Structures are given as structure tokens and as C-alpha cells.
Amino acid sequence: MDPITPPIDGGHKSTHNKIKELNMRNQTNKLKIIAILFLSFIGFTSSVMALKTSTEMRTIKKGKFTLNFICKSADFSEEINQKLIDTFFEVYPTLVKTYNKKSPKVVTFVVDPEYDGVAATSDDKVIFSVKYMSSHPGDIDVVTHEVMHIVQAYGQHSGMPGWVTEGIADYVRYAYGIDNAGAGWRLPDLSEKHNFQNSYRITARFFAWLELNHKGIIQKLDQAGRDKTYEEGAIWKKLTGKTIDELWSDYSKKPALS
User: Fold this and answer.
1) Residues 203 and 166: beta-carbon distance below 8 Å
2) Which range of residues forms the domain containing residue 184?
3) Are 143 and 117 contacting, i.e. CB atoms less than 8 angstroms apart?
């Protein structure tokens, strides 16, 4: 038999190649693991972001009225959410009955972290700021002011000036609000710098005085907005026998609300 001749470097090369191949496989596996971990991290981050901006929707019906409630922030206080809902059902039916029985029976509230204001109303939808409501959790009668805008429903070309619209909404908050004191909200004392066209609380105080001295005038003003019969000069004379300037003069002399 021929003696077995050992391969010249053959075994060494085969072992070297196997080690090299094994290293390459290990490197590939490491890259796969890194890729899987990266994709998992991206998926987790996306899930967290989705959770932070998740939209919670619920529909609450009581009697003739339905509230579609949408909260776009998972971190927003559930206690405040409930207060918004409770205030709607306590105040809105009364305002509908008092001012406009044709008001929508289905209303939508949206609590939105992207909205930078306080609150705003469009048709039958009210949007609330997460930032504002989180920092002013007691200012729940923002609901009262805003849902009155739904009731007003003046539409375009009503002739109703903004100072009257907002003055009525704040008067309604003053008259029907459920916890203005808790929010530190009140009508301001009359100042010589005030004017009936200042809007919001300043006008609302004037309207409270008007209602005290001319019972039912706020309801008539509100109805004039929907009927599109508001005339800046004529309506005050028609409802009170005096011009708006004469009424303000009388108010300025005796502004007491009791």
C-alpha cells in the first residue's frame, strides 16, 4: 500500500475557511438581531405616540339630548372630562327651553391637545383646549358660554354685532352658570373706561342690568339675531323706549344689580 501522503496545507486552509465562514455568519446574525431590535423600538415608540394622541369617543344620551364626547388626549383628566359632560346635561336643556327650542338635540364636544385657545364653537360642535382646561380645571362654565353659542345659531348676515353675541353668552354664563365662583369668574364692577361695546363680561354686566329693568329683553335680543331683525339703532328704542346711549347713561348712574 502506498503511504498516506498528508495534504500540503489543505487541512489548514479548510479550517481557516470554516472559521471565516462562521465569523461571517455570526456577524450576519448580529446585524439581524440589531435590525429586529431597531424595528421593535420603532414599533414601541409608535405605539407610545399613538397612545399619547389616542382618540377616545363616547356617546351619552339623556332624555331628548345626546352628547358625542371625543377626547384626543390619553393623559387628560377623566375628572374634567366628566365635569364637561355633566355641565352640558345640566345647562344645555335649560338654555334650549329658555331661548331656542329648535336648537340641535345632538351636540359634539372635542377635547383637543392641538387647540391653542380656550374653547370655540361652530354649529353644533364645541372644541376645548387640553392646555387651558388642565390649568383651569374649575372653569367648567366655559361649557355654559359655548353651548349658548349653539343655541344662538344666528348664522351669517344676521346683523347681530359681535359684542351683543358675546355679551349675551357671558350674561347666560352669569345667569345659568353652575360654578362661576369656583372658577373665580364674576362680572366686573363698572368702570369709567367701560363701554357697552366692550363685549364679554363688561357687556354682560350691562345686559344683567337691562334684564333687571326690562324683563325679558335678553330673550328678545337673542331671538332678533335668529330672525335677522336686529337693527343697531332701532331695536333698543323698540324694546325699551330709549336709545342704547341713553340706556348706558342710566346704567352708569345706577349700576347696581340688586
Assistant:
1) yes
2) 157-258
3) no
Q: Is residue 198 part of a domain?
A: yes
Could you read off the pLDDT of 196-247 as tens digits, one per residue? Answer: 999 999 999 999 999 999 999 999 999 999 999 999 889 999 999 999 999 9
Is residue 224 included in any domain, yes or no?
Answer: yes
Condensed to tens digits (0 to 9), the pLDDT of residues 99-136 reads 999 999 999 999 999 999 999 999 999 999 999 999 99
Residue found under cell 357671558? 170
- Where on the phi/psi map is residue 6: left (φ > 0), alpha (ψ -120 to 50), or beta? beta
- Residues with Cβ within 8 Å of 106's Cβ and at least 6 positions away in sequence, in order, are 65, 66, 67, 68, 124
User: CB-based burial of residue 107 (10 Å sphere; 0-12 exposed, 13-18 middle, 19+ buried)?
Assistant: buried
Describe the crossing of helices 142-152 and 162-176 by its angle, rounded to 10 degrees: 130
Same domain, 113 and 189: no
Q: How many domains does the chain have?
A: 2
- Identify the residue with better confidence: 191 or 3: 191
* Full-model pTM: 0.79
